[in-house]
């Protein structure tokens, strides 16, 4: 599956510039936690093909984001839009703008310390 994402000699990856806004145990569970991350992508920033072992909800704060699940058309999200990505879904997301930054929140409920992304190399 080829993605419609930007191609660049120097890939600009999105970054999480600080500790989670919230990271705490989920009450009445053995080993679950909730985490909320503020993510910033500079113009052209990308998180290539990857998956999360937990479901994630993305909420766009500013800018434009393109999300693409493997085997599906790309979806464009703008400030105020949200997207739910089920656990194990292979996807990529990026900032298509050449001038504006992208800011969004990630909401993750997962086994303790197991919610972040896992890179998936492109298929041959």
Automatic annotation (TrEMBL):
Span of the signal peptide: none
Report any Pfam family annotated for this entry. Answer: Cupin_2
Its protein name is Cupin
Q: SUPFAM superfamilies from the entry?
A: RmlC-like cupins (SSF51182)
Q: Which organism is it from?
A: Pseudorhodoplanes sinuspersici
Q: Which Gene3D superfamilies match?
A: Jelly Rolls
